[in-house]
Amino acid sequence: MWELIRANKRNSIILMTLMAMVLLLLGFLIGLFIFGPEGGFFGLVIATVIWLILTLISFSSGDQIFLAASGAKPVTKDVNPQLFNVVEEMTIAAGMGKMPKIYIIADPAPNAFATGRKPETSSIAVTAGLLGRLNRDELQGVIAHEMSHIINRDILFVTMAGVMLGTIVLLSQIFLRGMFYSSMGSRRRYSSGGKGGGQAAILFLIIAIIAAILAPIMAQLLYFALSRRREYLADAGGARLTRYPEGLASALEKIANDPSPQLAAANKASAPMYIVNPFKKKGQMKLSDLTSTHPPISERIRILRNMTHGASFKDYSDAYTSTTKHKTIVPVSSFTKEQVAIRQASEKAKSQELKSKQMRQVGDIMRVVNGFVFLSCVCGLKLKIPPNFKASTVKCPRCKRTLEVPKQ
Amino acid sequence: MDCPVCKNAMVVLELRGVEIDHCFGCGGIWLDAGELDLLIDDVEKSAKLLDSFTIDTKCTEAKRKCPICAKKMLKVVVGKDGHQLLIDSCKKKHGLWFDAGELEDILKRAKLDSDSKIQTLLADMFAENPQLSETGNNQNQ
Predict the structure, then answer these.
(1) At residue A144, does pLDDT exceed 90?
(2) If 0-12 CB within 10 Å is exposed, 13-18 middle and 19+ buried, where does residue B58 land?
(3) Is the per-residue pLDDT at A200 higher than 80?
C-alpha cells in the first residue's frame, strides 16, 4: 500500500517538475521578449509569483470553492443513513483515521467526486442521481474508488497540476493577446535599438510564440495522461477495498448508460475530479482519445470484470494487461503477497418497484437538504413546500382544506 | 423550482407514491425527466407516447423557460389533427410542462391503461370528478 503511494509520488514529482519547467521556460521566454535580453529572469519571477498566488488560493480554500461551485450540500447521518454507513465502512477498510465529510449534489446525472488536500480534511460528494440508481454494492464501489483517490493523494496532485496548467494557459494567453495589440510598438523599439538587436528580437519573438502555443498543449497532455492513470489506480484500489470488483463495474455501467442530461455544475477544470467524465460525447466510450481525462468506461468495466481470481492490486494488474494488452500501470512494488478474495454480492438486485421508491427517497433527501417544509394533509396528500413559497397558507387541492405553512 | 408561467414557487404533491410539481397560481403541472415513465409505469407505452410528440416550429405562443435550466423550451404538438395540444418540453430534456388540464387530457387520449389508474389518481389528487375536468379542458381550448 505504502509502496504504491511512494511510487505514485515519485512519478508525480517527475511530471510536476516537467510541468514546472515548461512554466518557467515560458516565463523566461516571455520575459526575454518583453523586457529585452536581460528580462528573462524578470519574466521567470513574474511567472513564479502568479503560480504561487494561484497555488495559495487553491490550497487555502480550493476544496470549499470547488464544493460551492458544484452546488454540493453537506448531509448528516439521519438524512441518508445508508450513504453514511458505506462511507464509514470504507474509511475503516482504507485505514483512514478520520471519515471524509459527505456532500450531496442535487442533480439527476449520476456522478461522484472527492476533494480536499489531505485525507484528514477530505470530502466526498455524490449526486442525487447516483444515490437513486445504485444499489448498496455499487454505491460501495463508487465510494471505495473515491476513497482510493483520497489515500493515493490524487486530489492534492490534481489540484497542483491543475493550478500549474492554469498558470501556463493564463501566461500564454496574456502574452499572445498582448502581442496582438502591441506588436507594432515593440517592433519599432527594437529595430531602432541596435544593429544586431533586431535579429535577436525576431528570434526571441519566434521562440516565444512557439513556446506560448506549445506550452498549454503540452501541459494539458501531461495533465490528461496523469489523470487517466490515476483513474485506473483508483479502480484497482476500489476493487481491493470492497473485495467486490463487480460492484464498481456495474456502477460504472449504470453511470455510463444513464440517459439523464449531463451534470450541470461540471466544467472543464473540474472534469478530472469526477468518477466518470461528466461531459457526454457521442462515440466517446469506444474512442480512447489523447485529450480525454478518463479512460474509456467500457475498458474500465472489462478490466474489473476480468478480475476473477481475487481483488488485490496484482489481480487488477493481471486483468489490466490481459484486457488492454498494454504494460501494466500498477507499480510492481505494490504486488505484495497479499491474497484478497472476492466476496459474494451482499444483496439481491432490487426490483423495479423498489427502484422508483428509492428515487423518491433521494428526492426527499434533497428537499430536506434544500430547506423544504413537508406537510401531510389529513386526506392523505403530501405537500412539499419549497423555502421560497410566499403564501402563509396553502389550500389542499384534494380536500380543499386550508393548511398553514410553518415559518422557517 | 418556480412555475414557468406565473413564476410562483411550485409545490410538490405526493399521493400513493406518485409525485408531481404543481403550481397553485395557474394550476399547471411540471414533470421532471423520467417522471412520465414513473407515472405511466410501462416503458413501452411511455416511449410510444414520447415518440408521438412532434416539435412545433410555427407556433406563435410565447416561449416559456425551463424551471431547471432557464433555457427556452420547445413547443411540442401532441395528438392527431383536429384535436391537438401544445405542451412545453425542455431542449435539454429536463422535463415537460403541462398547462392546467393538459396532462389529464393527453393521458385520456393516449388510452394508456385500461383501468385508467393514473387518471383516477390525478382526478383524486385535484378532487375533481372526470366530467368536471373534461368541461374544464373544453374551456381551455
Answers:
(1) yes
(2) exposed
(3) no
**A residues 230-259 closer than 8 Å to B (CB):** none
**Per residue in A62-84, pLDDT tens?**
788 878 877 888 888 877 888 99
Structurally, chain A folds into a number of domains equal to: 2
Tell me how close the Cα of B81 comes to any Cα of chain A, in angstroms: 31
Instruction: Flag if B9 and A389 touch (Cβ within 8 Å).
Output: yes
Based on the domain organization, do A181 and A97 belong to the same domain?
yes
**What is the percent of chain B with per-residue pLDDT over 70, rounded to a whole number?**
78
Instruction: Give how far A12 is from chain B: nearest CA, Å.
Output: 39
d(CA B103, CA B109): 10
Domain limit, last residue, from A321, A338, A355: A338
Q: For residues A181 and A198, give the distance between their C-alpha atoms in angstroms, rounded to a whole number.
A: 20
Is position B59 within any domain?
yes
> Where in the sequence is the domain holding B134, given as residue range(s)?
11-140
| Residues A389 and A262 occupy one common structural domain | no
A81 to chain B, closest Cα gap in Å: 21
Note the helical H segments in A194-244: 197-242
Rg (CA), chain A: 26
Is residue A195's pLDDT more than 50?
no
* Mutation target vs B (from A379, A383, A395; most B CBs, 10 A cutoff): A383
| Same domain, yes or no: A273 and A174 | yes
Residues of B in contact with A397 (CB under 8 A): 13, 22, 24, 125-127
Annotated catalytic residue A146 = yes
pLDDT of res. A46:
86
Task: Please check whether residues A179 and A281 belong to one and the same domain.
Answer: yes
Q: Could you give the CA distance from residue A235 to residue A301 in angstroms, rounded to a whole number?
A: 10
Q: How far is the C-alpha of A313 from the C-alpha of B141, rounded, in Å?
A: 66
pTM, full prediction:
0.68
pLDDT above 70 for A99: yes
Preferred mutation among A390, A394, A398, A405 to probe B, highest tally of B CBs within 10 A: A398
Distance CA A313, CA A239 (A): 9
Work out how many domains chain B is built from and give that number.
1
- Specify if B6 maps to a domain: no
A394 and chain B in contact, CB less than 8 A: yes
Residues in chain A: 408
| Position B3 in a domain | no
The ipTM of this complex is 0.75
Q: Which residue has better confidence, B12 or B139?
A: B12
Same domain, A307 and A381: no
Range of the domain at A117: 1-338
* pLDDT for B5: 85
| Rounded Cα gap, residues A244 and A207, in angstroms | 53
Quick: pLDDT tens for B92-125: 778 888 888 788 777 777 665 555 667 777 777 7
- With beta carbons less than 8 A apart as the criterion, state whether B19 and A360 touch: yes
